[in-house]
Amino acid sequence: MRYAAQRLAQAIPAFFATTFLIYAMVFVLPGDPILALAGDKPVPEQVLAVMRARYHLDEPLLVQYGRYMLGVFQGDLGRPSPASR
User: Is the predicted pLDDT of residue 84 greater than 70, yes or no?
Assistant: First the structure.
């Protein structure tokens, strides 16, 4: 029992460190995810602003990560891609 508790105690910080590192790496990638969704189609700046607000892309990294982790702990792992439906 003691060994299992120690391993669990080690796994929790490793989980948070790993998820934060991956989230931060995606956060610093160049480009705009909303423009990537639009493809080659022109998108008005007002629509871009609304979409960034809807997906919380206008918030700082730590706030976005906190929202993500809150969703994970509530069972929200994101929306499935159209190809997987």
Answer: no
